[in-house]
Amino acid sequence: MGSRLDGGHSDSVLSVIHSNGPDARIVSGGEDGELCIWTSDGSSHQKLKLSDNGDVTSMAASQLHPNILYVSCGKKIFKLDIHQGGQILDTLEFNDDEINQICLNEKEEFLSACDDSGVIRVINLVERKVQKTLRKHSNICATVCFRPKRPWELISGGYDSHLMQWDFSKGRSFCRINLEDYGHPPDNLDSYLVSPPFIHMLALSPDGSMLACGTENALVHLFSASKKNLAYLHTLRAHISGVCQVHFPAFQSDMLISGGNDGNILFWKVSLDLLPAPACNGHSEGAEPQNSSVSPVSSIKHGAKINWLASGVSTGQQKFIVVADNSSHLTLYPLPE
Question: Which residues span the membrane (predicted)?
């Protein structure tokens, strides 16, 4: 049973993150620029108002400086010190439309920000300027992530149903995968959702070897990211409506968590060794997904559409996930050992 974190927001909570380091915080972002910084057990919080005309849609926590958090709100990105009550250290504004997700690269020299226009800005944080502007998506770009150990590469996904691999040093896409080629239902599945495979969320495993992709047609696609080009592995089928969240917790390398518009949170055990890959050159021509033999190892019936989820370990070494939905509170679920 989950515990509620109440009293922070006045409207829907759109994003949540668990910061890094020994003095970690839970930070949640909501509509109308509301941001709340909670203790790791949720017992107390501080409330900030970043803007009156923008929603807090995404956050990125520094690994190198655990007190630093980047927050997207409307078209702006704020750099905050969450150990000093959310003090604003810097403000960046390079996107022309509402930002959907931000991400830090491994060395934290660059931050990527994708927006509703389909554009990705790669921002040089040292020089406070746009390093590159990436334009290939023909619709909303919803999600973006840098690749570990590949310092000039990132992956993006959008409402054009395309996965894009980028070399942002050259400002070009070198691999494009159309997920409409992966959306065919198996003959024995009656509950398949007939919706476009809009890409809501991407997540890379901690070592960068696997990419998970949550789509509007209730699927989670897995790709091997162990080589330069992505290669299709498997499709996970258990949600009955759009998968808006996929997340690899840092504390367990073989666990994938997915959250859906159906209000379900599913836990999967995934491995490159366990998932046989069909022939695929990373460009998706002719690739057909196999019927999934992988079932969730456990689930939580949250009951409301998932907006965002994050994971962490409390000071008492309790593993947990924290969930944001359309309500004004967060829900914290302890995970069994």
Answer: none
Identify whether residues 212 and 295 lie together within a single domain. Answer: yes
Instruction: Specify whether 33 is located in the same domain as 121.
Output: no
Question: For residue 327, with 0-12 CB atoms within 10 Å meaning exposed, 13-18 middle and 19 or more buried, which class applies?
Answer: middle
- How far apart CA 42 and CA 321 sit, in angstroms, is 12
User: What's the pTM value of the predicted model, to 2 decimals?
Assistant: 0.93
Token pair listed for 53: 């005309």
Helix H or strand E segment including 129: strand 129-135
Q: What is the pLDDT of residue 301?
A: 97
320 & 295 share domain: no
- Give CA–CA dist 142/308, Å, rounded: 13
Does residue 196 belong to any structural domain of this protein? yes
Looking at residue 285, its pLDDT comes to 45
Query: Based on the structure, what is the number of domains in the chain?
Result: 2
Residue 289: its pLDDT value, please? 47
Give residue for tokens 């509402």.
98
Residue among 223, 222, 217 nearest 239 (CA): 217
Contact 292, 235 (CB under 8 A): yes
CA–CA separation, 27 vs 48, rounded Å?
Answer: 11
Q: Report the candidate in 95, 13, 94, 23 with the shortest Cα–Cα distance to residue 61.
A: 23
Q: Within 10 Å of residue 192's Cβ, how many Cβ atoms? A: 15
CA-nearest of 110, 114, 166, 175 to 143 is 114
* Residue for token pair 């149903």: 161
How is the chain split among helix, strand and coil, in percent rounded to 5? 5, 50, 50
Domain holding 178, by residue range, is 109-301
Quick one: tokens of 148?
A: 């570990």
pLDDT-flagged residues of the chain (< 50): 187-188, 276-286, 288-292
* pLDDT given at position 280: 42
Say if CB 4 and CB 329 are below 8 A apart: yes
